[in-house]
Write a structure and sequence with these properties.
The structure holds two protein chains of two kinds. Chain A is about 30% helix and about 25% strand. Chain A has a seven-stranded mixed β-sheet, sandwiched between helices. A six-stranded mixed β-sheet of chain A has the order 7-15-14-13-8-27. A four-stranded mixed β-sheet of chain A has the order 16-24-25-26, with helices on both faces. In chain A, helix 7 crosses helix 8 (about 265-275). Chain B has two domains: about 1-45 and about 55-165, Uridine Diphospho-n-acetylenolpyruvylglucosamine Reductase, domain 3, CATH 3.30.465; about 175-280, CO dehydrogenase flavoprotein, C-terminal domain (Enolase-like, domain 1). Chain B has helices spanning about 10-20, 30-35, 75, 80-85, 85-95, 100, 105-110, 120-125, 225-230, 235-250, 260-280, and strands at about 1-5, 25, 45-50, 60, 65-70, 130-135, 140-145, 150, 155, 160-165, 175-180, 190-200, 205-215, 220. In chain B, the strands form four sheets. Chain B has a five-stranded antiparallel β-sheet with strand order 4-5-10-6-7. Chain B has a four-stranded antiparallel β-sheet with strand order 11-12-13-14. In chain B, strand 13 (about 205-215) and strand 14 (about 220) form a beta hairpin. In chain B, helix 9 (about 225-230) runs antiparallel to helix 10. Chain B is globular. Chain B starts with a strand and ends in a 5-residue tail after the last helix. Classes of the chains: A alpha+beta, B alpha+beta.
Chain lengths: ~750, ~290
């Protein structure tokens, strides 16, 4: 759907900072999260997990657990179906292992009992006989031909023969003559980088309550970013039809991409099917870190050539990602995003994915992009340093803009990169003085954004209020933004609109809340649904006034005669029309179903000042500013919140967050003590500058904003630290022992 | 699990002594309750001591202060006179956990947990603090430095527990300081730490010095040579170099997920140096 051709739209609601609809419930503790519901007769489920990184399951003896008083069901991998579809099969096998355990924490069996204490006791009575296998957790090691094989026969046809069976994906993007490009360069820098796997770190652990009866009908209440995805995964894993499962998404305590898969719902359903009672499973933090989605871990080589005045002549990247124990295509997105900010004559990116004995990778804001762009932006920064060039000027000189053929193929439409870079250059942060041991880093960031399958139903209530029904869990303020767009379009106050998130049986299919899609795509569908309702209201009013439908227009929340020829009828408000809807043809509603495209790519620029302690390797973030093109910021508080949150998560990725594996292949830091996300006192206020370059693909110009902000911080922080420390850092996280070692040699 | 709230220290000691299974003491509970929740331990007996006489009190004694074993970090931080006399000890206690944990966590619990990284322990050691221990056979006083014996272990016998800790008197021209290294700014466990306690004469010359380091050996270490290096100086470069060298020589750390041997050793020296300067300034010394 195209951007509205109004020259300068005067928004009344969109762009204001209205009160969030979920605020009171959340601060008073009333909001119902995944673990907050119970049912009569409910049982408590608990999962037994592998203590080994890689082992064959020789046998599982559940007899003692089953014999324990209070135990109502025990399930293992054979209690789940084996879906033909590989993606569904991977989810099912990840929920309960069958022949092999693939990582430390892989689920092996589960029990349902009348109390948590009995469930815990029962888990200990399950005897699993493992045959330990050699394991591999490092991506470079996993790619070696003699590496232990995590899964056999999973490589795509694109992978050349003769490589380790762990290598599942090979991709390549780019254009131009690399050799000629590098020949034109005055300076070429080639560097290798490594980044550790990180976790989304949402506060609410996965939780669900599920019920599946002998009639094959089931209900699930769960914390998820996509109830329709849960339905599909559960239907496949349980071998039931989607129509028989009703999935309701709870309030959600953070997702960041991490709740776009299922880990416990199929298990709870399988237990419930056996026990004949509802089963609740709540993951512990330890389980969340061990068995739900971390990001990819990476190893990357980047080579860039530059002329002495700053023009990039050629660029090449080779990315080796591991998405854990299953095939995964995140490297495709990394390879496409790596050089997206640049207008390049010659560019090539090659990507590989290799399986390792780590948990299955699950998306985390802009999956694949932060690491690839970290490596690219590090080399660009080093080239600027070596050639004595201003890093912002160099990025401006090479920036992708409208008409640029992107490094991954498509030609860009309206994009905000140059405007964002210019805003950064004009900001006082960029020229603020730095003290000793301080450094300033800069990075561009990019994300594709996504539209996708969307259904919205909009009801005009008889009291003149509006109910919007949509199907995407709200992880970033989408309910407020959707209500605002409905209010804007209908011309009613924001507080007359309430947006609710439907269960899977109450609304047509919606893609998951991902790809920064919801405010864009659901917003677009909401505007169209409102327009449908308006059309119907105008039709009703035309009947009352006994004039042509086309002679009624909608303005400021009222139906009005289109002009003098339509008569002198006084305007009818939405409330007046709604009140008599029963007499004019029945209830009034609008709906819209779409597979939305035109999401519009998104760019951001981050500036970061750091100070390093030369004696300890400690890094202090002194100042941080985020510049981002939001298209149109529907609710600026939420947009700023996304920009700040992404920056903070990226700072954590850069400085301290990492999955640490021992020689035994077991995760050593499955808790928030040693998996270190930043705390409030680690951070300065994150300043934000929103740019609004309308997205041509949305009626109000909206772009997704949720993912781009996590892309630049890795390089922005690393470039700042490298400049402050006087040594180029090439590995994340830059934890104090690593930085101190780099500084002292 | 049985939860018991005995009516006297003697009764508590008898209960603990006679328990055949696993017994745990509840004072602040900030370790025990976390261990329970994490399913690290399933005690058969939990003995609550917080209500017993003196457990929640800070009282002046012989010019110093006796701190009850259930006094929280927050309560110590609000005790102006205690904080003025032993600022290093108090700042160590106040670094344990979050604000919420501070309202419960105790110095005695931090000591008995036996973590080499316990934040209150190095400054207690440099203060020469003495723990009063109740046992089935009566009461004894034990220097704090002798309580921890290794990670998770202490020298108390079955049935013994600490009822209070005495922070002794000190002159006005004396003070102390505690610093730790953590990768974040709060909510963390020391990768290395150091406490320094100094006494000065009227010219600002160090007349007595005690230095202890944490998280660089199986227990908190009192580094005698490091103290010796400072005595007779005004913390000039040579004295500081001697301090750092002595600390580094004493360190015997491990490499683990929190830090390497090299990192812990290097930072322990850096922290000792920085803590010495803070303690010196607090004691009124002019560098």
């Amino acid at each position: 759907m195209a951007f509205d051709a109004q020259a300068e739209r005067n928004f009344k609601v969109v762009g204001t900072r209205v009160t969030r609809p979920d605020g009171i419930d959340k601060v008073t503790g009333k909001a119902a999260y995944g673990a907050d519901v119970s049912a009569p007769g409910m049982l408590h489920g608990r999962i037994l997990r592998s203590p080994h990184a890689h082992a064959r399951i020789v046998s599982i003896d559940t007899s003692a657990a089953k014999a324990l008083t209070g135990v109502k069901a025990v399930v293992t991998g054979t209690d789940l179906a084996q879906p033909e579809d590989e993606a569904f099969a991977d989810v099912a096998i990840n929920c309960l292992a069958r022949d092999k355990v693939l990582y430390d924490g892989h689920a092996v069996a589960a029990v349902a009992a009348t109390s948590k204490a009995i469930a815990k006791q029962a888990i200990r009575l399950i005897k699993v006989n493992y045959e330990k296998l050699p394991h591999v957790t490092d991506v470079d090691e996993a790619m070696k031909p003699d590496a232990p094989v995590v899964q056999e026969g999973r490589a795509l046809e694109t992978v050349p023969a003769g490589m380790s069976q762990n290598v599942t994906t090979h991709c390549q993007f780019g254009h131009g003559d690399l050799e000629a490009g590098f020949a034109k360069a005055d300076k070429i820098i080639e560097r290798s980088f490594k980044t550790a796997a990180t976790h989304q770190g949402y506060i609410e652990p996965q939780a669900c309550m599920a019920s599946l009866g002998s009639d094959g009908r089931g209900e699930v209440w769960c914390c998820t970013q996509g109830q329709y995805m849960v339905r599909a995964n559960c239907a496949a894993a349980l071998g039931v039809e989607e129509s028989q499962l009703r999935i309701t998404a709870s309030e959600i305590g953070g997702g960041f991409g991490g709740k776009t898969s299922t880990f416990i719902e199929p298990v709870a359903l399988a237990l419930s099917r056996k026990a004949g009672k509802p089963v609740k499973i709540v993951m512990t933090r330890d389980e969340v870190l061990k068995a739900t989605g971390p990001t990819i871990s990476t190893s990357m080589d980047i080579k860039i050539g530059m002329t002495k005045d700053g023009r990039i002549t050629a660029a090449r990247g080779e990315l080796r990602y591991s998405g854990g124990a299953y095939p995964n295509a995140t490297v495709d997105m990394g390879a496409q995003a790596a050089f997206a900010a640049y207008d390049l004559e010659a560019v090539e990116t090659v990507g590989w994915n290799a399986m390792t004995n780590r948990p299955k990778e699950i998306p985390y804001r802009a999956p694949g992009a932060p690491t690839a762009i970290y490596a690219v932006e590090s080399v660009v920064d080093e080239l600027c340093q070596e050639l004595g060039l201003d890093p912002l000027d160099v990025r401006l000189m090479n920036a992708a803009r409208k008409g640029t053929r992107s490094s991954y193929g498509p030609t860009f439409n309206e994009i905000g990169l140059v405007a964002t870079l210019e805003a950064a250059k004009a900001h006082p942060h960029y020229t603020a003085p730095l003290g000793p041991n301080q450094g300033r880093g800069l990075s561009c960031g990019f994300w594709f954004n996504f539209g996708g399958n969307t259904c919205v139903s909009l009801n005009i209530n008889d009291d003149g209020t509006i109910g919007v029904v949509e199907g995407n869990p709200d992880i970033g303020g989408s309910r407020a933004s959707i209500s605002m767009m409905a209010a804007e379009e209908l011309g009613v106050p924001y507080d007359k609109v309430r947006t609710v998130i439907a269960d899977t049986s109450s609304l047509g299919f919606n893609d998951i809340t991902d790809g920064s899609r919801v405010t864009f795509a659901v917003g677009l569908a909401t505007i169209e649904a409102a327009r449908a309702a308006i059309k119907e209201m105008c039709r009703r009013v035309a009947k009352i006034w006994d004039i042509d439908e086309e002679a009624v227009i909608w303005e400021d929340g009222c139906a009005k005669p289109a002009g003098p020829n339509a008569g002198t009828h006084p305007p009818m408000t939405l409330a007046e029309i709604a009140a008599i809807a029963g007499k004019t043809g029945g209830p009034i509603a609008g709906h819209h179903e779409v597979n939305a495209d035109g999401a519009g790519v998104s760019f951001g620029v981050h500036l970061c000042d750091t100070e390093v302690d030369r004696e300890t390797g400690a890094v202090k973030i002194l100042r941080y500013t985020v510049f981002q093109d939001a298209g149109k910021a529907v609710h600026p508080d939420y947009v700023e919140g996304q920009m700040q949150g992404g920056a903070v998560q990226g700072i954590g990725w850069a400085l301290n967050e990492e999955y640490i594996y021992g020689e035994d292949g077991r995760l050593q830091n499955a808790g928030f003590l040693d998996y270190r996300v930043p705390v409030a006192s680690d951070l300065p206020p994150i300043e934000t500058v929103i740019l609004e370059i309308p997205n041509p693909g949305h009626p109000y110009g909206v772009r997704g904003v949720g993912e781009t902000p996590i892309v630049p911080p890795l390089a922005a922080v690393s470039n700042a630290v490298s400049r402050a420390a006087g040594v180029r850092m090439t590995e994340l996280p830059m934890s104090p022992p690593r930085l101190l070692k780099a500084m002292t040699g | 699990m049985r939860y018991v709230k005995p009516q006297s220290f003697e009764a508590a000691a008898t209960l603990l002594h006679e328990e055949a299974g696993i017994a745990r003491i509840l004072a602040g509970g900030t370790d025990v309750l976390v261990q329970l929740k994490a399913e690290m331990v399933e005690p058969d007996l939990m003995v609550d001591l917080k209500h017993l006489p003196g457990m929640r009190e800070i009282v002046a004694e012989d010019g110093g202060f006796r701190v009850g074993a259930a006094v929280s970090g927050a309560e110590m931080g609000e005790h102006a006179a205690l904080k003025a006399m032993w600022p290093g000890v108090v700042e160590g206690v106040e670094l344990i956990g979050s604000s919420q944990v501070q309202s419960r966590a105790t110095m005695a619990g931090n000591l008995c947990t036996g973590s080499p990284a316990g934040d209150s322990v190095p400054a207690m050691v440099t203060a020469g603090a003495v723990a009063r221990v109740q046992g089935p056979d009566g009461v004894r006083d034990v220097p704090v430095v002798d309580i921890p014996t290794g990670p998770g272990k202490n020298s108390l016998a079955k049935g013994e527990f600490i009822t209070s800790i005495l922070l002794p008197a000190r002159p006005d021209t004396a003070s102390d300081a505690y610093l730790r290294f953590i990768p974040r700014t709060e909510m963390d466990i020391a990768v290395s730490s150091a406490a320094v306690s100094l006494e000065l004469d009227s010219d600002g010359v160090v007349t007595a010095a005690h230095v202890a380091v944490g998280a660089v050996a199986p227990t908190v270490l009192l580094v005698q040579d490091a103290g010796v290096a400072l005595v007779g100086s005004k913390l000039d470069d040579a004295a500081i170099a001697g301090l750092v060298a002595a600390v580094e020589a004493a360190c015997n750390p491990i490499t683990d997920k929190r830090g390497t041997i090299e990192f812990r050793t290097k930072t322990a020296g850096v922290l000792a140096k920085r803590a010495a300067h803070i303690a010196y300034a607090r004691a009124g010394g002019q560098a």
